[in-house]
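Much of our argument rests on the idea that a fold can be written as discrete symbols. Part of our work consisted of pairing the sequence of a single chain with a tokenised description of its backbone. We regard such an encoding as a compact summary of how the chain folds. The amino acid sequence and the backbone structure tokens for this protein are reproduced below.
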Amino acid sequence: MRRRTISVYWRELKPPAPMDTVDTLLHARWVIPIEPDDRVLSEHTLAIHEGRIVALLPTAAARAQYQARDEVSLDRHALLPGLVNAHTHAAMSLLRGLADDLPLMDWLQHHIWPAEARWVNETFVRDGSELAIAEMLRGGITCFNDMYFFPESAARAARQAGMRATVGMIVIDAPTAYAKDIDGYLSKGLALHDEYSGDARIRTMWAPHAPYTIGDATFEKIQLYAAELNLGIHIHVHETRDEIEQSIEKYGLRPLQRLRKLGLIGPNLVAVHTVHLNPSEIELLAQFGCHSAHCPASNLKLGSGIAPVAQMLAQGVNVGLGTDGAASNNRLDLWSEMRLAALLAKGTSGDPTSVCAHAALRMATVNAARALCRDDEIGSLVEGKAADLIAVNLDQLELSPCFDIASHLVYVAGRHDVSHVWVGGELLVEHGRLLHIDEAAILATARRWQRRIGPATSC
């Protein structure tokens, strides 16, 4: 008995083990890590060091194990991964609302393409991308997949803002201000890829516009370069019925059948829209590990239709969410896309469980990251991944009472409830305010473009 007492006494006198030092501790009321699925953690802390997640553990344990240079208490907030926009045209923010309430081809051929032919240049893309990036960051989007002309300007804008982006190496079988022929598009794309090959935040992907604007010979070159460089292919496909009918008339094949014949169907394909799919095409996407970038608001606004998301998910197709461009949406808002995607899937399938709140959150985070081959670094709050995350303030009149955090995030909350945004552990938005972006300057630039592009009656 005496020895036991002495033993206990000496244990109590031992100095405590040294605490690990990290850059940041984020103490949150709730954490939704996305992986594992369907999990909501209460009173948990994220430890972040050198831009990466070191640990996710109960707050009491975190306080005992870690000391930090910066501690943030988010007592009435939910912490979750930064949202990933699987498809957009960032620079088209400067064409927001230019020609609304029109069918896709009328909108493109008689309004958007003529405006682009007149106005699009490096400055337009830089200014439009900066406007889009500011909007997306304030709404909790930390990574976006872009497709547009002068992608070099979009890449520079994203890098300057500290945002993560996959920048599309645009290809279209028509001369534009960006390139005069296919060799011009391809050489500029390769140069862009080389410039950012070692960049931690900017990646590249081939971005042929659509099957109706790309010939077989060009697709064959893209497929060759994609395989050689191990790059993804990001393309609009099966967006409208007219597109499919024209493909059958010209090639004797539906667009996806044609892409398969040309060797483009595979796990590196991000098929944007995929509105009009038959059961065999859904099976094809699943069989070859393709990804779908679902843009529900844009598809509805242009009258294109409703993608069979419930069926795709049931077959195992990876579906991520995109906003499309602000010219056809007209918001770069993944919160409204999450809600719309969940509701449309329920309504069209007749199954209210087809896309639950957790499934919608996965579509806006890890699913989209997987489509961009970036789920090894972003999309979920997992040890070792980059610290791209957002905080949502749930202490709001419009969000009360709250019985289910995931449900509230999808069906009630909006981008205005995002209070904090981190990319790579760097705080970019605090209490809804952009820390490193001059909002007044961006707004002034947008107004200058409005006066140049729009009619005298524009607002």
About this structure: The CA atoms of residues 182 and 218 lie 7 Å apart. The first strand starts at residue 20 and ends at 31. The longest helix spans residues 122-138.
